[in-house]
What we know:
The structure holds 2 protein chains of 2 kinds. By secondary structure, chain A is an alpha+beta fold. Chain A has 2 domains: 2-93 and 216-228, no CATH class; 99-201, Ribbon (Umud Fragment, subunit A), CATH 2.10.109.10. Chain A is built from 6 helices and 8 strands; from the N terminus they run H-H-E-H-H-E-E-E-E-E-E-E-H-H. A 6-stranded antiparallel β-sheet of chain A has the order 3-4-8-5-6-7, with no helix packed on it. In chain A, strands 1-2 form a two-stranded antiparallel ribbon. In chain A, helix 2 crosses helix 6 and helix 5 (202-210) crosses helix 6. Chain A is elongated, with a radius of gyration of 22 Å. Chain B has 2 domains: 22-63 and 130-220, no CATH class; 65-123. In chain B, strand 2 and strand 3 (167-175) form a beta hairpin. In chain B, helix 2 (29-43) crosses helix 6 (201-217) and helix 3 packs antiparallel against helix 4 (95-123). Chain B is globular, with a radius of gyration of 24 Å. The A-B interface holds A 21, 24-25, 28-29, 31-32, 35-36, 38-39, 42-43, 45-46, 49-51, 99, 124, 229-231 and B 30, 34, 64, 67, 70-71, 74-75, 77-78, 81-82, 84-85, 90-93, 98, 101-102, 104-105, 108-109, 112.
Amino acid sequence: MIKDMIDKQVIELKKLWANKRMLTFQLLNLAMIVFSALMIWKGLMFVTKVSVLLYWRFSRRIDCLFDDEMGWVDHNGRMSWRKYMLRCMLPLEDRLVSESPVVVVLSGSMEPAFQRGDILFLNNSVEKVDVGDVVVFKIKDRDIPIVHRILKVHQKPDGHVELLTKGDNNRVDDRGLYAPGQLWLEREDILGKAVGTLRYVGMVTIALNDYPVLKYVLVGMMGLFVLTSKEG
Amino acid sequence: MAKKNQKDDDESVEEEEELELLQVDVGDIMKVKQILDETVAGTISEKNEDLSSHGGKVKIEEDHRHDNMKLALMFTACCFAAMAQFGLKTEFPHDSNRWLLGLCCAVYFCISGILQLIMTFVDKDCIMVTKPLRDEAMIKLVKGSGNKEMDKYGIRVRTQFPRFSEFYTVILEFEGKENSEFVKETWSVGKFFDVDGFFDEEGLAIEIEELFQRFERGDFNKKESSDEAKTAKKSKKDSVKKD
């Protein structure tokens, strides 16, 4: 039966190849479908003013290091040489960087509110962030964005705002994670406030990245289907 | 011996033809309509020498302008989308790139919307459009047979195949003419598909050729297409076939 299906698809493709106009139309149709999804994504980025450099972790062998973000730096702001070497040794495919208004929760520091594999929707067009808000922030000169909750907000008379964050599941606040000498975060360090969540959906993406072949198989099948079905 | 060989040849030709018969899942309505439409479009094309009652002397050319316009629109939309996706750095909060991104997205969605509107309200059920006849000799032949306007207007080929209905309708009318005369014919799909889904391409082609030749003769359907007229035409056709 699978052989029949493949044969049928091959016949359709041959027919398509013979008719160049139809082939162009179907290719453009396929491109428009893909671009529609991408433009919705970009449109969301435009509306939420978010650009998040997202560090996706797929290598299981260093999972244990990420489970406790406090382990990256000690209280003096120094990173142990072992962790630094490991981070530099990460192959490029392990450090896929994307910009999106949606992030996947990577670690367990926000349990039980968010688990690894949850998807968070971000909005950066909010002016003020308050105590209790879950935010994504990046420390200056570091690549890794962090998803934690705001613990304290200091508002100075001149309007300047200082923030302190902490992971729900961590024992102490994030001062150990900040840059050396930094005690507070500023509003500019905040990349977005979490406004919605989808449980576990990010696991699909994590699976697709753990097994890259799945990605190509899925996209290939979808592309073939769109090319050979002419419902457009 | 020679006769046997010829019989073998005929059989093998027949076998070949059978093998080439397209088979579809008759439950897949979209696929069935697609194949019927493709056959209709293929029959009404310049490659078909049996289309006109004047044989290969009258050739019908397909008009690709509308298709080309749609393709151009799709290509433009894809260019804007590609620029938004790959051409812009989106490291906000620098505002300049953000507005450009918004513009590209907006243009993409506008063009996409326009294309949808065109496909819904302009194309509707049309599957192809032909150009008016240009060749003097062809025009003379066709005018002689009855249809006086094939040099002024092209032909618009429309097909209808409602969901869950077994009846397939083909309509030929003048493109660009208000309240155009038309020829219309309806068949049950059972006439062209058997239980296993094998498609009688030749049979449909013959019906379409007859329909086109009716159009050529100027033998148009009455404007108020009542059921009686349809049934009368059908029974007339059946009786002509029996003869």
